[in-house]
Design brief:
Number of helices: 12
CATH architecture of the largest domain: 3-Layer(aba) Sandwich
Bound molecules: pyridoxal-5'-phosphate
Oligomer: single chain
CATH topology of the largest domain: Aspartate Aminotransferase, domain 2
Strand content: 5-15%
CATH class of the largest domain: Alpha Beta
Structural class: alpha/beta
């Protein structure tokens, strides 16, 4: 073949983080098929969909097989009823955006990647560690990246104070995947003020907003003064309502932003709208019954997080998160690399987490545990980790030390 490929793909890791984890797990299963693997790794939900969501989707599917109820291509922006419901969802928290400032998507990941189409060669600012999609999709477009370190000394909440006053596209994720850290209003105000002064844009990923349990913490960038002039927001039904397999999300772009028109044009060209059935499911997920069921599922995951957090606290292992996010971000002492630690835990206990290095350079030396799991698995994981911890303690060496 003589065509030229996008050689920017050479700049990103050859395997997506979770594909590499799956590869190592498969190898372990081949070596030790009888050992049950407990996954606290990939951030995929495990609770079934709320009944009202699956019933609404069944009805929508049945309706599609009738002459009157059949639906073909829909509005690329999304079902008007769903756009209204999403706008109402924001209104409850005092954020006033009109339905046509939202765009329904097939999930946050696609929008976060596709938004790159809207920008020229602006410099990008990304917190490190963070969800890898922002970095990889901008590297594929050959953009220059600047990192803001999130570490123990800044409570995993970087600020824009050392950035030069020039326009950047700044990605923020709160609650953060992987650290579980959440920006306060003041933290976000600093970013919005910086963006207004420098002419920057903030892309705010709110995929975990529904896990925030303290009402003083912001769920949306649009709760912050001035954000309408410099920010857009990407969000998802995936973690909020268990839609990782159903696929539905949204992006909010205020009218005042030139990006509203650009995104509309981009979507009209490259997207034909989210599935009608998914959107009907999403509508049910935002109904009073859906919201109550979602909250129960989130409480279940957060109880898992509490159990894991208790174990870590008892053993004196430093971690962040686990309160407003389904992730616990553990510091691995004794300089073991996060992939080595992943292999160590996998072979010794059959418990899988996610190596911090997969989320950026500052993620090295850390390990993410996800609370998206069945309760019995969480108890078993804690038991196995506890046994490992104790056996190493008896040998008078540290739990995390490789022997
Ligand atoms: N944003 C963050 C921070 C995530 O962790 C994830 C998924 O894990 C997504 C976006 C993607 O969500 P979706 O399933 O809607 O594509």
């Amino acid at each position: 073949m003589k065509i030229k490929f996008n050689d920017n793909f050479d700049k990103i890791p050859q395997n997506y983080l979770f594909s590499e984890i799956a590869r190592r797990v498969d190898e372990q299963k081949r070596k030790n098929p009888s050992k049950k693997i407990i996954s606290l790794g990939i951030g995929d939900v495990t609770r079934p969909l709320p009944k009202c969501v699956s019933s609404a989707m069944s009805r929508a599917a049945a309706q599609m097989s009738t002459r009157e109820g059949f639906r073909g291509y829909g509005d690329t922006r999304g079902l008007p009823e769903l756009l209204n419901s999403v706008a109402e969802y924001y209104k409850k928290r005092g954020v006033l955006l009109s339905p046509d400032e939202f765009f329904i998507s097939d999930g946050a990941k696609s929008d976060l990647g596709n938004l790159c189409d809207l920008f020229d060669d602006n410099e990008i600012v990304i917190c490190d560690p963070v969800y890898p999609v922002y970095l990889d999709s901008n590297l594929m477009s050959n953009r220059k990246i600047r990192f803001l370190s999130a570490n123990r000394s800044n409570n995993f909440l970087p600020s824009p104070q050392n950035l030069p006053k020039k326009p950047f596209v700044i990605y923020l994720c709160s609650p953060n995947n992987p650290t579980g850290a959440v920006f306060s209003r003041e933290n976000l105000q600093d970013f919005v003020d910086f963006a207004l002064e420098s002419g920057s844009l903030v892309i705010f990923d709110a995929a975990y907003e529904s896990f925030i349990s303290d009402n003083t913490l912001p769920h949306s960038i649009f709760e912050i003064d001035g954000a309408r002039e410099c920010a857009i927001e990407v969000c998802s039904f995936s973690k909020m309502a268990g839609f990782t397999g159903v696929r539905c999300g949204w992006t909010a772009i205020p009218h005042s932003s030139p990006l509203n028109k650009l995104w509309c044009r981009r979507q009209a060209t490259k997207f034909n709208g989210a599935s009608y059935i998914s959107q009907i499911g999403a509508l049910a997920a935002l109904s009073p019954e859906g919201l109550t069921e979602n909250a129960k599922n989130i409480a279940y995951y957060m109880e898992n997080a509490r159990i894991l957090a208790d174990f870590l606290t008892k053993k004196g292992i430093f971690y962040c998160g686990g309160v407003h996010a389904p992730y616990l971000w553990i510091e691995i002492p004794h300089a073991q690399s996060s992939w080595d630690f992943f292999d160590f835990l996998l072979t010794k206990t059959g418990v899988i987490g996610t190596p911090g290095a997969g989320f950026g350079r500052c993620g090295e030396g850390h390990f993410r545990l996800s609370s998206f799991a069945d309760r019995t698995d969480v108890f078993e994981a804690v038991e196995r980790l506890n046994d490992l911890f104790n056996s190493y303690k008896e040998k008078n060496c540290h739990f995390f030390e490789k022997k």
